Backbone:
């Protein structure tokens, strides 16, 4: 479980996160939603330690993560997998080397064991025969899958995804969402996903937190998000004409 | 004359200025691109010291091996001189060879190698610094690359002055 307590983050004078408190449970896909610039990515990066919060606490089980030094954080980070918005695959390495990368640093497995794990992870994300390809030889959807394969390479307890389906077509987006959801349930991971895609919310949103201007203003799940009377949430959820028409029809 | 000018300045300072443009911009843009595409964040996330992983090998490699590049350029420079002598006939080849051997101070080669080593350290560390802290998308990468070249070049001239004062006075 991840517990966030009164998290605040400033960039200069601007307060980007305001007193965020939320819990993320294992075996669930917890979504952070909100408009662009609302603070979703800053929250996600503060959770994993890429940004240092100005005040507040981030707990991984019973460990206060944001007060640890670099070496101590390393132990927790071994248990974290992260999928970045643009996949962030290393350009200088092949698909196989990308997935092996965390294994080379954190395990003493033999080459054969590493290769076996690489192939297992690739199979898990429905990719085969791409071991020797470089990231620029893959499509956007394939890059995301390799990103997921790398994120789960060390069998992490926590998975963070920053807009996993940005730039993907609706069909591929749903496949990626379903894959993340399946992996979460299969390995009982605590998964936190940052998105503004309503399809993702309705597909995999076991729990949903809505951020508005850096504040967590609504919490719920995919079942009650459409019926909420929260003004800002409704403006976000029913922003498109199609969504408005659906809302009218369901009334 | 050709020997001294090659050993003292051309083979170290001039080559270093060329390397600052070629290698410096390469390092800066490579690391800068990794920064803006979140590849460095991905390394940090895995608990890897990204600066150490990306920059240290570059500094070590260039500091150790660029002096050899300097020696190679010195030899090629002398061979070039020999070819010009043969083509133009200004002096005979044996006179040219005798001139090269006359009052030769091997300390100048050592001095030049030390300078090249210091210049290489400057080029890689300055370029890596600007690449590592690049921000603002592809424009930011271009800008960091330009800054890296300018700062490296000026630093090379300053380091040249300091080392010359220390080693030749």
Residues:
């Amino acid at each position: 479980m991840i517990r966030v307590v009164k998290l605040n983050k400033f960039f200069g004078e601007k307060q980007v996160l305001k007193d965020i408190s939320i819990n993320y449970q294992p075996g669930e896909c917890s979504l952070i939603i909100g408009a662009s610039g609302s603070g979703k990515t800053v929250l996600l990066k503060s959770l994993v330690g890429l940004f240092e919060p100005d005040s507040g606490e981030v707990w991984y089980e019973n460990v206060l993560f944001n007060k640890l030094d670099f070496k101590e954080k390393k132990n927790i980070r071994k248990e974290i997998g992260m999928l970045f918005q643009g996949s962030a695959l290393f350009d200088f390495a092949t698909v196989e080397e990308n997935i092996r990368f965390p294994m080379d640093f954190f395990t003493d497995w033999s080459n054969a064991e590493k290769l076996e794990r690489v192939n297992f992870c690739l199979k898990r994300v429905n990719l085969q025969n791409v071991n020797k390809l470089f990231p620029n030889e893959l499509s956007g959807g394939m890059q995301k899958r390799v990103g997921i394969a790398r994120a789960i390479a060390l069998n992490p307890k926590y998975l963070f995804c920053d807009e996993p389906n940005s730039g993907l077509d609706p069909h591929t987006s749903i496949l990626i969402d379903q894959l993340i959801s399946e992996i979460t349930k299969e390995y009982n991971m605590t998964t936190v996903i940052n998105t503004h895609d309503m399809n993702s919310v309705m597909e995999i949103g076991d729990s949903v937190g809505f951020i508005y201007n850096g504040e967590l203003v609504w919490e719920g799940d995919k079942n009650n998000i459409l019926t909420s009377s929260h003004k800002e949430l409704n403006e976000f959820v029913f922003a498109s004409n199609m969504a408005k028409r659906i809302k009218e029809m369901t009334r | 004359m050709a020997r001294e000018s090659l050993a003292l300045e051309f083979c170290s300072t001039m080559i270093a200025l060329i390397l600052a443009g070629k290698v410096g911009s390469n390092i800066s843009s490579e690391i800068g691109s990794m920064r803006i595409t979140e590849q460095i964040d991905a390394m940090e996330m895995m608990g890897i010291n990204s600066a150490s992983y990306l920059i240290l090998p570059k500094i070590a490699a260039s500091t150790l091996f660029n002096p050899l590049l300097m020696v190679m350029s010195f030899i090629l420079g002398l061979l070039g001189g020999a070819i010009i002598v043969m083509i133009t006939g200004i002096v005979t080849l044996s006179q040219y060879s005798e001139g090269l051997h006359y009052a030769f101070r091997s300390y100048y080669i050592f001095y030049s190698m030390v300078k090249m080593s210091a210049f290489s350290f400057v080029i890689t560390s300055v370029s890596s610094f600007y690449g590592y802290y690049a921000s603002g998308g592809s424009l930011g990468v271009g800008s960091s690359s330009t800054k890296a070249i300018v700062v490296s070049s000026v630093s090379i001239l300053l380091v040249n002055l300091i080392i010359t004062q220390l080693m030749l006075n």
